[in-house]
Amino acid sequence: MDITLRWFGKKHDSVKLEYIKQIPGVTGVVSSLHDVPAGEAWKLEDILALKNEVEAAGLKLVGIESVNIHEDIKIGLPTREKYIENYKISLENLGKADVHLVCYNFMPIFDWTRTDLAKELEDGSYVLAYDENIIKDIKPEKMFERVEKESAGFILPGWEPNRRDEIMDLFEKYKGVTAEKRMENLKYFLDAIMPVCEKYQIKMAIHPDDPAWSVFGLPRIVTSEKSLEEIAALNDSIYNGFTLCTGSLGSNLKNNLPEIIRNPKIKDRIHFVHFRNIKYECDGVFHESSHLSSDGDFDMYEIAKALYDIGFDGVLRPDHGRMIWGEEARPGYGLYDRALGVAYFNGLWEAIRKSDKSK
Ligand code: DNO
Ligand code: MN
């Protein structure tokens, strides 16, 4: 297994590769070409430059998070053809650079959605939080104002103020695009790229929608055990797989995470794991917590145990952490709490491994 951290690149991340390297057990990072807009083809030289930078710090570039999907592919517009071709070029170049894991998501318009990027907890730490009561009545126009106000100097991914017109236009384009249609569009995309993935052995790992239900009236399709089964059935290739993000999938409390991990239709397709915990205040209102089981609502031991039992040997990373010890970093992506998450996972894993009587 490769234990990694997400790294946003020197230009966009205050966390240094050298510090990541100091976390016990971490072998690499997942990163991305953050300046290349969704839909454009990635150049081999840019991928190699990123890879060299990571390797110079003694780490591996274990995968890409994310190669984002152009909205026209998600909506199913005729213009998707050119964006799919570009995606295939990106995959081909990643394959040539010896990168074999790609995380992506199929969320309409926005990545994960939160109502607060810096909610203060009793112990003085800051976390990302979500309140459905705020989201359910808010019009997208108003969301822009909110995001600017609550952003703690950062912007929720997808809500950049310069995207305002584009986003309002996208809401129009999504009208009438049902969940069924979006699933068909995902199949169309997977069918087109799988031959390239087979050729270069690139594992595609779709990230669950976060929160795991529809927001702003936009249908979301990666939300439950059933939807993961449906996605697995869209294309037989083993390279059609998942990012098992515990915090995102688990935001819907109906999702039983250890059960999903053990599901025979899903388990072999888990290529990437995001390991994190959240704490519910009441239905639809949650905040992210430290990784420890007793700080949140998930039994992290049972999650690790399920991964051990299925023989998980892919890539894992801690996900959003709290902002602690006065650190100033991108919300969710500070060094300290994610490092604690790794240390905790290492402890769980060693204990599970050593108590396995069959070994
Ligand atoms: C949330 C995070 C996400 C994720 C992207 C994947 O749980 O892990 O930002 O990286 O949605 O495309
Ligand atoms: Mn995640």
What's the CATH class label? Alpha Beta
Could you give the distance between the termini? 18 Å
The helical percent reads: 25-40%
CATH superfamily placement: Divalent-metal-dependent TIM barrel enzymes
Number of strands: 12
Largest sheet: 8 strands, parallel, barrel
Name the average pLDDT: 95
Low-confidence stretches: none
Q: In percent terms, what proportion of residues is strand? A: 15-25%
Q: What's the helix-strand series? A: EHEHEHHEEEHHHHEHEHHEEEHEH
What is the multimeric organization of the chains shown?
Answer: single chain
Give the helix tally: 13
Number of domains: 1
Tertiary shape: globular
CATH topology: TIM Barrel
Rg from C-alpha positions? 19 Å
CATH second-level architecture: Alpha-Beta Barrel
Which class of secondary structure composition applies to the elements?
A: alpha/beta
Write out the distinct hetero groups bound to the structure.
Answer: D-mannose, manganese (II) ion
User: How are strands sequenced across the largest beta sheet?
Assistant: 1-2-3-4-7-8-9-12
